Each structure stands twice: as C-alpha cells, then as structure tokens.
Amino acid sequence: MNARDRDRVRDRDGEGRARSARPRDGLGRPLPYGEAGVERQPEGVVRPPAETVGEAQRLLDAGMPFHAHEVFEDAWKSGPEEAAPLWRGLAQLAVGLTHAARGNAVGGARLLRRGADALAGREDAYGIDVAGLVGWARELAGRVAAGEHIDAAGEAPVLTGRPGPA
After folding, report:
1. C-alpha distances in angstroms, 98 versus 95, 124, 150, 157, 161?
2. What is d(CA 115, CA 96) in angstroms, rounded to the nearest whole number?
3. C-alpha span between 139 and 125 (Å, rounded)
4. Is residue 2 very low, low, confident or very high in pLDDT (cuts 50, 70, 90)?
5. How far, rounded to the nearest angstrom, does the alpha carbon of residue 4 sit from its chain's CA centroid?
6. Could you give the CA distance from residue 91 to residue 71 in angstroms, rounded to a whole number?
7. pLDDT tens digit string along 22-79?
8. CA distance 163 to 166
9. What span, in angstroms and rounded, lies between the C-alpha atoms of 136 and 143?
C-alpha cells in the first residue's frame, strides 16, 4: 500500500495529521461513513474574542456544544496566555454539556464542575457573564448527576447575560 492509500485508510487531513473523516452528529458522535452529518468546525481558526463568543453561542443555541468547545479550544490555543484559563474553562463547560446530552451523567457532571471551578472567581471578560456561567454549570451538574435527561439546545447557557429567546 502506498502512502496516499494509507492516509485515506487512516483518515489524515491535508497536512498529514490523523483526523477522522467520519461524519459526526450535532453532539460530535461519529456516524457511519456515508451518512449525512453536521459540518465540522474548522480547526485552528483565530478569531477576535467577540467573534469567538458569538460563534460559540450560535453553536450552543443550535444544540451543538461539542462544536462550541472546538471554538473555545481555538481561542485558548491561539489567544494571549493570560486569557487561556477563561477559554479552557468555557471549553470544559461545553464538553460537560456534550457528555450530559449524550447520556454520560458521570462525565458530564464532572466536566461541568471542573469548568465551573476553573471559572469561579474570574472577572467577566469579553462580555462573558462568568459568575452566571458558574452558577449555571453547578446547577446543571447537580441535575445531571441526579440522572436528569439533558437536551443540549434546551440547556444552552447564555454566555453574555443577554436575554435568551422567548
């Protein structure tokens, strides 16, 4: 087998890095090859903070917290070092919501609490209501741990304290 065929078998991206080409659903779960999935978030996108918040909110509102986590991850890896803990904590909240919506109560509650702990005591930044998110995450973690079924779109946090949809 030549290198080109091997890369197809291993699902490599254009730069040769391993990357699953399987389609994914809105919660990031792999689907069988050939099925229609949700368009993936491009990796390594450098966005201004306001654009990061807006794109992540759009994805959360659409019930796609896995994809929102990727937006936060790009911000923490490409932004200033002093902002990395904020973006990392937000990514943990999004992954916690992902796991909770997938039915993984233990992992969901754990990641929601870890994200809340990482954000607790931080100042609001970029219009993000940090204290509100900490409260949201802790309350949701309790419900997840108690076995409540979670709908990702229905439980989407409001990042900026803006009024939610009526």
Report:
1. 5, 24, 9, 12, 21
2. 8
3. 22
4. low
5. 32
6. 8
7. 888 878 878 788 888 777 766 777 899 999 999 999 999 999 999 999 999 999 999 8
8. 8
9. 11
